[in-house]
Amino acid sequence: MVITLFYEDDQLTTIQYEHNEVSVIGVVTKDETKKEIYRKFRKEWVQSWYAVLEKMAIEEWDLLHIHANTSSVGEALIKAVKLNSSRVKIVASYHLPVSCSKGTLLFANTMHGCEVKPAINICTACFISSKQQWPLGIAKVISAFMPMPSSEKLPTALRIKYLVKQFIRSFDLFNKEVSLWHVFSQQIKSILLLNGVEEKKIFLLKHGVNRFFFEDGDQASLKRLLSSCTIFIYAARFDRAKGFGTLLKAWCNLPDSKDRNLWIIGEQQTDDEQITDCIQQASVRNDITWLGAKSQEELSLIMKEAHCVIIPSECEEIGPLVFHESISAGCDVIASDIGGCRELAGIYDKKTGVFEPGNVARLLEMIQQFKYSGLKEVPLSQTQNYQLVLASYTQLVQS
Hints:
Low-confidence stretches: none
Strand content: 15-25%
Distance between the termini: 40 Å
Strand order of the largest sheet: 10-9-8-11-12-13
């Protein structure tokens, strides 16, 4: 990959490279303060972004689709684009918890999704409760009397209420710039409504699955039903939020057996001691196969050999694509009963079992009791998804 400097000033640096024959511009902001990390805006970034857009030499923008809200790609970019193209329409996809100051959508120190309207005091209390593992009632009292100093010299713990205020303001102003939200679950639609987003600005659709994943006839299902060894798959990051530690603890408490095998796809990208310990214990098992990182096409072929994909997330998945991919490939699913996993388990209920997130004993029991259903479901394809997205673009631009 050849990376070249595209544009630089005292506010940001941009680079350019090619990926799959598409030209990509990468951007890094400079000297970001803690306030700007939460507020996600600096007025000088607008002119810097405008200079980048001028160099890109695009005469007029009809539509800008943003997949996050960050300091580098967010309100400043939108304002710069609008300087260039006053009639541009902005679409934002809710892939990440962009409306949550904690970045989790989990309420306080629980495994329950947030169902409250964002406000400075309650969001600060939620932050404190989660960080300190304190009861929410205590955190609420602290939040109510906590001052809001803005000095960058103070530690984050003393400024958290001020920073939460900046985050809430950031989302409100970002939302005012957005013409249409793309969301992938009813849960996220509800979250946006709590955040004051008008319902007419929310477009609910499902992820589309790459053609690689769809089963070829009934051969794969028949092969699974006749197999003497049940294959389970884990394909996600090796971290706590994905429930990886819970899965390894459950599996390592099972007797080593030739009748089942766990295929783990991915690579360790964390120094988390708890995860490292779990991996070390699991590495001596004969019924765990470590497959390393795989491409999407390779993953699809592996899934077509397996019986069940385990998605043990301990975070609010926002409509996890791997769930749809698993079902498309013919696998059954064992998932944690939380967020997007819970919602998809309801949609694919005949092929899915759920357990309380973090519950090692219940997950172990479900693995032991698992029987492959052999049922077929056909999720939305990538092509069908693209057609819906393009239709939403057309309607928006013409409105």
